[in-house]
């Protein structure tokens, strides 16, 4: 550069875009002048790149800087996984020169090779059945199994991290084992993201874009196997995806994954905040509804396989569906107090809960009661529509007792509850307690608890409850008659209606009148012996103790 310059008095030249900057150039100059310095994993990346930039090859000197740095990489730095990760991380700031000298690809290949040797999830020496056992062990562990090197990979940039994982899978690393690694990377890279409530976003546009790219890349790398990732982790990713406004495909993928594992979800996993600023509901109901639809579609596919209800697999599916139904009922009860929740949304979400999976209707009744309490301005028609979501025949005794005194329910619903409860108790009194099926109830309904009590105690308890229900039914009938009497206008009145009611004869009055006709001073053989008054003492003497 000095010789090519036309300036005769040149005392300073500018070398643009030197990899590693002034520090790297200073080390290269020390190498040229024979000044000793230490080559380490912290400076090997920039030394290799600056040597290439300055063309310090064997063509100009034997044992030049290019050959010296290559030897150190092959013999020291890339021999260990930690060293390869460190060099790769430092190479991120040396692009595109690090790519040109194939430093990035060499580091990635070294990491993939070392990870597959160190990990218990590599393909070598393991059959598919063995992998099935490992998957089940991952799910059963309270904490996911993470190899010691997974923490080191979290320092890498997302695009480099993606290339490392792809190289690992190409060398035989099982994809399902990437789940814990991705969880660790996501928790570290998405830290500080306030995606758990309403409010204006407290994040800059550039940072939001970077986190969006990270999240979409992580979702694309998620294992396809079921039960590898926890539902809480998927819920965290979905919250972040909604908050960062990722692509629709990314969000739908997460919703589908959650639907496949909905039976393992907790209520908090479904309480996804709504990030709309238009006064909408507090929680994202539409997203949960799509998750539930994905679950039902997966169950339909499972039923097409032809599981028998008596099989262990079929029983597992049924219990899983019952857990999901209970979860959705709890979710309904949680969101029911939201005043912005419309009737159509509440009914739409409740209707997709399979009726056959609801052992009792107590959870649905609780959600309906909370909704009616939070929305007192509903019309009679809307209240009837909401109450039609539950099957009154499947309410427990406690729920029936509560519903019979619930003023928020329509009168027709209360009468229906009391009718079915009386019918159920009547069937029990007729002998259905001994094992007969009630014709008024579905065969799956378990009316009575499984506690072992004598039949006589059960019958006596049922009799008492039946009497209480009869009283409530009479009260309800009287209330209905009063309503009908108030609405019907009588055109004629009976003439006896104006007369005051006759006073009832008391027992004391009748006895005193009869005693007044008796003369205590008349002898028994007197002229009044044939009268009725003489017959009274003889009647009394029959009961005498003398």
TrEMBL record:
Pfam families: NPH3
Annotated keywords: Coiled coil, Ubl conjugation pathway
Pathway, per record: Protein modification; protein ubiquitination
Superkingdom to which the source organism belongs: Eukaryota
Biased composition (Basic residues): 533-546
Transmembrane residue ranges: none
Coiled-coil ranges per UniProt: 459-486
UniProt xrefs under InterPro entries: NPH3/RPT2-like, NPH3_dom, SKP1/BTB/POZ_sf
UniProt keyword annotation of Calcium present: no
Keyword Disulfide bond: no
Region (Disordered): 488-546
Location of the NPH3 domain: 147-424
Family as reported in the entry's similarity comment: Belongs to the NPH3 family.
Name of the protein this chain belongs to: BTB/POZ domain-containing protein At5g67385-like isoform X2
Gene: LOC105116400
